[in-house]
Amino acid sequence: MCIRDSYARRAALASNGDADGDLRRAIEALEKGRALDPHGFVAAFYEGEAYARLADRAAARGDDPAADRARAIAMYERGVSAAPRMSLLYNGLSMVRLAQAADAWQREGDPDLPLAQAITAATQAIAVAPEQGFGYNNLGAALSRLADFQRLRRRDPRAASAAATAAFTLA
User: Fold this and answer.
1) Nearest Cα to 8, choosing from 52, 39, 66?
2) Is residue 22 a contact partner of residue 11, using CB atoms and an 8 Å limit?
3) Cβ burial, residue 36 (10 Å; 0-12/13-18/19+)
4) Distance in angstroms (rounded) separating the CA atoms of residues 59 and 42
5) Which has the closest alpha carbon to 45: 30, 65, 24?
6) What stretch of H or E contains 151?
7) By C-alpha distance, which of 77, 25, 13 is closest to 48?
8) Closest CA to 171 of 58, 91, 100
9) Which of 43, 42, 20, 14 is nearest to 31 (CA)?
10) pLDDT < 50 positions in the chain
11) For 160, phi and psi rounded to 5 degrees?
């Protein structure tokens, strides 16, 4: 087990009073690893994961998750640059973009761009790894959220809902 795993596992414990601190320490360890292998994708992926978790924790507290979501996206994109055939990077991007869309909606902003980016990232995950279900699941989640937003805007959600069902069926 590496130090990143230790911090990440401890951060996930309900009894941890300093989960954010553990995630930040995991990020520090990953930054050091990235310095040793600046063209690798593994540290970038896990750093993206840590920032995504920090953002989710901030959102759950009612704090603004935008900065940590942006850092997560930057790390996933760095990973994609290094390893464009790794579907897990696109799946991470899709999940963070979907969270950005939800954040925008909750703050009465426009969720359309991050939602479209979530769909694109999920589609890219499927393109590089069609045998894996994660991309289909993320695509289904994004299309389902699109149907929700359409319904809330009093638009016809049936096409997006049917596409979400089709994606979930393939997952």
Assistant:
1) 52
2) yes
3) exposed
4) 26
5) 30
6) helix 134-152
7) 77
8) 91
9) 43
10) 1
11) -65, -40
pLDDT the model gives residue 26: 87
pLDDT given at position 33: 86
The encoded tokens of residue 130 equal 């069609």
Number of helices followed by number of strands (H, E) in the chain: 8, 0
3-state per-residue secondary structure call for 93-150: HHHHHHHHHHHHHHCCCCCHHHHHHHHHHHHHHHHHCCCCCHHHHHHHHHHHHHHHHH
Q: How many CB atoms lie within 10 A of CB 85?
A: 11
Cα distance from N-terminal residue to C-terminal residue, the chain:
30
φ/ψ of 18, rounded to 5, equals -130, 45
Cα(110)–Cα(117) distance, rounded to whole angstroms?
Answer: 13
- pLDDT value of position 1: 43
CA 89 – CA 86 distance, rounded (Å):
6
> Can you state the percent helix, strand and coil of the chain, rounding each to 5?
80, 0, 20
The DSSP letter of residue 155 is -
CB contact at 8 A, 91 and 135: yes
Long-range contacts of 80-86 (CB under 8 A, 24+ apart): 80/41, 82/39, 82/40, 82/41, 82/44, 83/41, 84/128, 85/128, 86/41, 86/45, 86/128
